[in-house]
Amino acid sequence: MVETLEDFEAKLASIDKEGESLTADEERILAIEYYNCSISFLRFLGYCKLEEPPDPLKPGSGGVIRLELWPHILEIVKALLSEKLIIILKSRQIGASWLMSAYDLW
Fold first, then answer.
1. Tally of domains within the chain
2. Is 36 among the domain residues?
3. Is 62 among the domain residues?
4. Is 9 among the domain residues?
5. Tens-place pLDDT, residues 44-84
6. Do the domain assignments include residue 2?
7. How does DSSP assign 68-89, residue by residue?
8. What does the alpha-carbon distance between residue 102 and residue 94 come to, in Å, rounded to a whole number?
9. Taking the model in full, what pTM does it have?
10. Helix, strand, or coil here: 52?
11. What one-character-per-residue DSSP string does 10-51 give?
12. Range of the structural domain that residue 57 is part of
C-alpha cells in the first residue's frame, strides 16, 4: 500500500517489468500515473524522449535521449498552458519543435 507521495514515487520508479505481468498494486500505480500525465503537461514531459541523430564529429553521440526541460522550454510550456495564442521567435536547435510535438501528443 502506498501512503505518501515519496512511497508512490519510489514504487513507480521500481516498476520496470517490460513483458512481465504486473501485480494489482502496480497496475493501480500505473493507472494513477497515467491519469497524472493526462492532466499535467509537465508530468507528461517527464516521459518524453527524443531520437537524436549521431554526429560524426562526436563519437558515441545520438540515440534516444530524454527531453531536457531547459528554462526556455519551461517558459514556452507556461505560455502554452496559459495563453490562447502565442508566437515563438526561435532559432534552430532549441527544442521548440520537439516540445510542440509533445504538446500535440498530450
1. 1
2. yes
3. yes
4. no
5. 998 898 888 888 888 877 888 888 888 988 999 999 999 89
6. no
7. P--HHHHHHHHHHHH-SS----
8. 14
9. 0.74
10. strand
11. HHHHH---TTSPPPHHHHHHHHHHHHHHHH-HHHHHTT-EEE
12. 19-105
